[in-house]
Amino acid sequence: MPLCLLVVAALLLSAPAALAQQSSGGSPPTLDFEFYRARIEPMFLVKRPGNIRCAECHERGAGALRFQPLAEGGTSWTGEASRKNFAAVSAFVAPGNPGASRLLQHPLERESGGDPFHGGGKHWSASDPEYQTLAAWVRGETRPTSKTVVRIIQTNAAGDDSHLIDPATNTVVGVIHDIRIPHGVTSAPDGSRLYISNEALHTLDAVDARSLSVVARIPLSGRPNNVDISKDGRKVYVGIREAPGALDVVDTRSLTNVKTVPVKGEIHNVYVTPDGKFAVAGSIQASTISIVDTSTDRMVRTIAMSAGVRPMAFDTNPDGSTKRIFVQLSNFHGFAVVDFATGQEVARVEHPPVPGVRAHNDGLQGAPAHGLGVTPDGRQLWSTSKVYGYAYVFSLPDVKEIGRVYVGQHPEWVTFSPDGRYVYVAAAGDNQTFVVDTKTLKEVARIPVGQVPKRNGTAILQTN
After folding, report:
1. DSSP string covering 190-228, please?
2. Whole-angstrom Cα distance, residue 150 to residue 142?
3. What domain range is 387 assigned to?
4. Cα→Cα distances 411→426, 427, 437, Å
5. 345 and 236 within one domain
6. Summary count for the chain: helices (H), strands (E)
7. Does 283 map to a domain?
8. pLDDT tens digits, 331-373
9. What CATH number did the domain enclosing 292 receive?
């Protein structure tokens, strides 16, 4: 039988009556359906290295556990089907007693007290986040206790994984699997989910922050590129790179694509402004910045640029409104400065050569500079150069260069730790994320990640 994660009781011919008995007195807790549907059932659809999805086996009724069939091309079950799955799975649970529940014990490693054998393989230790989530549900919890942690999320453009980096140790502490050609990443303000655009399937993939499982794939109107989330966390804006271009608006409560906003040209990158009032989308093909009002999700104006629009960053006025857009452009080694209120370009900064460093002009993909970010305190602007492998650092608000630091081959996106102490730079040519101290401008770590890391982001996530 093929491997799958939560088949636990699948090889049993029936659920033993003993599973319903509690190890202690008192009435057993009630298993919560909403917790099951939001946190447990999505695990059955997760593709993990070396395993097929549980649903692929158990839709065919392997053993005694049978899931309802998914609709053709479906990425989740309907409410009615989930109710039936809930009943089927509950038969292999002893409410209140994870240690007596075959659903948990069968795939648990023997060293952690699991059953002697499981035909679907052993998948967890007792400390595994998915195992802990299952145990919380079996104990009758409806909202598992959690703490928050800071993570740097590094997507890998030539792979099917994304890496989570702990900025306290600058080491990889988790991996999200089964999102092929991941592009943009953003996170829910409450830390419950990550959202990653999936170029292979043309979906926005929602990832549970605790288990790192893909819990939903939301179909989009075309191939996606970058993404960002509204300040209240209710909408994710997804740039659609296919002609004629658009911004898709995904409702994070229903996990559905609720609107496709027409904009000017195919969209490469999209950002929600620091004050949350606008979604700003850039087009390479149309050399245009489209500005969408987030209260109405309608385009309100455009800004024409002299070349294709690549990464952008923003600074703010004292009242928090957007002051300037810093814009990297196709085939320009530097960035432009645009006044947000007027839409006029007010300055252009070209990166000078780095003495003693040979220029690298192969594989630039029309973007000699392709990484831009403003520190959380608004005092520095970082701009990467794929030509020299350096980041150029500027003071704000005067936009004066204050230093340079090597950040690897083909550096791309940048993101910062919440306190602004470190900047994380995706070195696509090295399969590493470089970490630099923003005060000393000294490298502090090189973190191996996946194939061709490009986009990254900072998130504060819930964990068990």
Report:
1. TSSEEEEEETTTTEEEEEETTT--EEEEEE-SS-EEEEE
2. 24
3. 147-463
4. 6, 4, 16
5. yes
6. 5, 28
7. yes
8. 999 999 999 999 999 999 999 999 999 999 988 999 999 999 9
9. 2.130.10.10
